[in-house]
Design goal:
With 96 residues, the chain is of the alpha+beta class. 25% of the residues lie in helices and 36% in strands. The chain has a 6-stranded mixed sheet with strand order 1-2-3-4-5-6.
Length: 96
């Protein structure tokens, strides 16, 4: 498991990269108000917990997440202003 500190506009986030096997990683970036996760994790569970969360897909590294767009989100994230297809860098500004 690798933990990475990510800085965006003076705000700090934690990136977690867990190697599942040779071709697969479980990825999460957390902020104070919400988190962004790869498609291995379940958006329905985040919704039930009323978390502000988003899903991105087609990513293998934390850096890939930073260059991706939202493909699913919870109602709590939507209420904060996150939208489908939003750039992750903009989401991080909201989740700071």
């Amino acid at each position: 498991m690798t933990e990475k500190e990510i800085k965006v506009n003076g705000k700090t986030f934690k990136g977690i990269e867990l190697e599942l096997c040779d071709n697969s990683n479980l990825l999460v970036i957390t902020g104070k108000k919400g988190y962004i996760m790869c498609g291995y994790l379940n958006i329905n569970t985040a919704q039930k917990r009323n978390d502000a969360a988003c899903i991105v897909t087609g990513v293998k590294t934390i850096e890939d997440i930073l260059n991706s767009k939202v493909v699913a989100l919870t109602a709590a994230a939507q209420e904060m202003g996150v939208t489908m297809n939003m750039d992750v860098m903009k989401v991080l500004e909201i989740f700071a």
